[in-house]
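Possible regression after last week's pipeline update?

I re-ran a chain I had predicted before the update to compare outputs. Posting the input and the new output here so someone can diff against the archived version. Not blocking, just want to make sure nothing changed silently.
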Amino acid sequence: MQIIPTFKSTLRFQEINRASLRLLAQKKSGRYKEDFKSLLMEYLGTGNIVFVPSARWGLYFILKNLDIPIGAEVIVSAFNYYAVPAAIIRAGMKPVFVDISENGIGIDISKIEQAVTDQTKVLIVTHLCGFVADMEKISAIARKHGLIIIEDCAQAFGAAVGTRKAGSFGDHAFFTFGLTKNFTAFGSGAVVTKNRNLLEMMEHDLSKLQQTSYRRTLLQLFWAYAILFATSRILFPLIYWVIRWLSDFGIDILDRLFRENEALMGKLPDSGCLNDVQASVGITQLSSVDERNILRGQKGLKLYNALKNTENITLPNIIAQAKNIFISCPVLVKDREKIRACLLKQGIVTSFGFMRNCSNFKLFSRYRSACVNAERASREIIYLPLYDSITDEEIDFVAEHIRKCLS
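New output (post-update):
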């Protein structure tokens, strides 16, 4: 029996070791930050960039500094991470949830205009799972109604259409550099914008924040080592049996380890902006991210092609000509608990993820709307193993056993 984890880090031991040495040296010249910023602007094809504590706070600072009234409506996909509507509310705006398409996981473009009112000022486009949204159609709608486009690139670093990267289509975009992403700098994030005035206002706000403490960076280093060891070919077979044993008692240990407490955003952070050690990791990651993304895209398409004619499974529609990076590999199945348990017995670890139908969250009950496709996705989505180092044999093994479990 093969044993296959659902996730593996993009970091390598050499990268973490170098970051550890820099942390111990505690050099605070700021040189790496400036170099990283320049390289990042060149890579993304954008003119202005500012580092932020996280993606959600990046979105908050964008909305806070836009020239729009308090209480303005912000259109957002209903199937989303809770932090996105939470940031909208924290900025004093009103989230307007739009359903996803019937056979996709992104916002239903045909329903966007129905949600536009005189109060609508912003449209947030999420490139979920590294699948690039149809920005040509979405941009046409935004221009027609005078909407500001903010791209949510938290799961789409390096995804592209042609030579244009996700984050370069809209007016503004935000990114995260979290440990579990396809591009990481041990946390923090970035905002890119075409508006120089907004950049200066954000820089003023962020100047009051401290950079990420070296103590917190050290904690992230330990987590990075732990993830690498736990998902290694030597140790993961032991971890697998722990996951399987706990699952017999109804305990989803991966969910418990990585799920956040879903709540509205509280006070502003007093620190969290990128430090020099994080920037040095980002520079190293930039040198290999395209290679990793190409492998992810190829392997994701291989798995989807292997499942194409399988009954009782829905593969999300994606733009064929886009460079989709498959930060994860979602499929929709009925009775997903049964399918997940079946796959786990075969050595295949999967996840339900953390995306939900936010329009049906108690947390956002004031903004509730009927989004049937998002509700279906919340019930049926399951994320299959997908990372740049997964082998073709492992992909074939996963596809074979999905077909067996579904039948």
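Follow-up from reviewer: compared with the archived run. The mean pLDDT is 94. Marking as no regression found.
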